[in-house]
Amino acid sequence: MVVTLERIYSKEEIINTDFSNLVSIVREPNMCSGGIETIRVIIRESNLRHDASILEIGSNTGFSSLEFASTLPHAKVTGIDINKQSVAFSKAKAEEHGIKNVEFIQSDARTLPFEDHSFDLVFCSNVTSFINDRDSAISEYLRVLKPNGVLAAAPIYYREIPPFHIKKSVEEAIHSNIDVWDKSFWEETFEDHGLKPYFTEDFKYLESTREEIEQYISMVMSQEHLSTVDPDIKKAMENRLRYFYELFDKNLTYCGFSIMLYKFKPINPEPILHKSCRV
Ligand SMILES: C[S@@+](CC[C@H](N)C(=O)[O-])C[C@H]1O[C@@H](n2cnc3c(N)ncnc32)[C@H](O)[C@@H]1O
């Protein structure tokens, strides 16, 4: 079943749209940093029960939630996103693939519609930086996390200071301010919320070639739901996509991301007098 576009967009709207909205219109796969490998690492390192309850914040077009749900068929996966179209598309994708242990809900990360302590794992990839009131969002992630649950984050951050014009353009593209955050920004933010890291793996990005960017654009634009779009509007979508991909690819050469797994700080402090090591 093809979910058609919600409505007809004008050229003007496409030229001025931000990245998240364009992604929801063209339905770019928009995966978390590191793609499937990131999901595998999280599943492996978080030691989940087979029937775990998993929440993804900012599930966008459903990539990570569908990956969790298909890899862990007894788990119950929920993806939330503020964008209505992304949620509708994710639902259709789950139906198309016959994945029944996932649901998608339109919600704001800052006011989650769940009871306290509902989830074994809360996953937030590249979403918290899109939310200006980040502390409220993180407090909500932790409110719905079970006391022994895992917060899995995969944030993008700067490893080198980018040129000012690139940072400025990215801020416009994502409609959020960037305070040139490095990895320690995220570490301090999560620790300030009472969390303690138990696993971290760091990555840097590799620059894409022009051909790779063009191939990716062709793949996105050849999707069936775009086949009936007016050629002029379609060209505007393609150009806007190219603008974002080239900008982000350049920006990411200054960036890295980490897979960070956190638990709540233990009740007992840990000063050890009689230390030990593995033999
Ligand atoms: C770049 S995409 C990230 C998608 C993918 N999950 C990832 O990690 O790469 C950011 C997503 O966050 C969503 N988003 C932005 N603000 C949000 C909010 N306040 N609550 C829920 N989702 C939000 C956007 O709609 C978009 O789908």
Could you explain how this protein is built, in words?
This protein is an alpha/beta fold and 279 residues long. It has one domain: 3-Layer(aba) Sandwich (Rossmann fold). It contains ten helices and eight strands. The mean pLDDT is 93. It binds S-adenosylmethionine. Residues 20, 30, 32, 58-60, 64, 81-83, 86, 108-110, 125-127, 130-131 line the site of S-adenosylmethionine (SAM). The site of S-adenosylmethionine has 19 residues, from loops.
Please outline the helices and strands.
Elements: H1 11-16, H2 19-26, H3 36-46, E1 53-57, H4 63-71, E2 76-81, H5 84-96, E3 102-106, E4 119-124, H6 134-143, E5 145-153, E6 156-158, H7 164-174, H8 183-192, E7 195-204, H9 210-221, H10 231-252, E8 255-264
Parallel strand pairs: 1-2, 1-4, 2-3, 4-5
Antiparallel strand pairs: 5-8, 6-8, 7-8
Helix pairs in contact: 2-10, 7-10, 9-10
The structure holds S-adenosylmethionine (SAM).
S-adenosylmethionine (SAM) is lined by residues 20, 30, 32, 58-60, 64, 81-83, 86, 108-110, 125-127, 130-131.
Descriptive labels:
279 residues; alpha/beta; Rossmann fold; eight-stranded mixed beta sheet; binds S-adenosylmethionine
Largest sheet entry: 8 strands, mixed
Give the tally of structural domains. Answer: 1
In percent terms, what proportion of residues is strand? 15-25%
Portion of residues in helices? 40-55%
Helix-strand string: HHHEHEHEEHEEHHEHHE
Structural class: alpha/beta
**The CATH architecture:** 3-Layer(aba) Sandwich
Give the rounded overall mean pLDDT. 93
> Mind telling me the CATH class?
Alpha Beta
**Spatial shape:** globular
Q: Helical region count?
A: 10
Topology, number of strands: 8
